[in-house]
Task: structure prediction
Amino acid sequence: DTGVSQDPRHKITKRGQNVTFRCDPISEHNRLYWYRQTLGQGPEFLTYFQNEAQLEKSRLLSDRFSAERPKGSFSTLEIQRTEQGDSAMYLCASSPSGSVMNTEAFFGQGTRLTVV
Amino acid sequence: AQSVAQPEDQVNVAEGNPLTVKCTYSVSGNPYLFWYVQYPNRGLQFLLKYITGDNLVKGSYGFEAEFNKSQTSFHLKKPSALVSDSALYFCAVRERYKLSFGAGTTVTVRA
Result:
């Protein structure tokens, strides 16, 4: 499968614990995005990487959230001191180089986080 | 800020009938519009996009969308719906690096 891969697919954690998600983008894609989707809503943008550089962060990304893409390939999203409000589907997407405005993003299947 | 709205939470059609999923947009400048579909427990799949050019855009799985500048709309259409088209559909607009999505429309196609 050459699509965007996310791991784990599901995560249940207790409030206050830290969690980390991994995303492996399509291999030739240099752009990587994280989104969050809650029930009944469309995905909301969290952050964007071009290669290893984090170029944009949403104000939704509180200081408990951190994302990295150390070698410009895979990315991790860490949530510290999880809260029940963090329960959501976390989606990763990637897109190739070229005009950022007119290239579509390819999404992974997501990681569903449940904070209990 | 760029935004899209999907005025219908749900659309129900009979198999073989035309399917339309509505989307309106609000942008400053030229709009870059996208449609995605989400099946249960699956990620979003790209259907089609409007960047410039012809107002009728053709995409995957027999879907097409009509861009209407005067009505600021980008409705998704399929001439003959299939039961397998039942899913959650999202309209989105590109604003620099990010996509801003609508709330989604659940499509149910009954046999």
The mean pLDDT of chain B is 94.
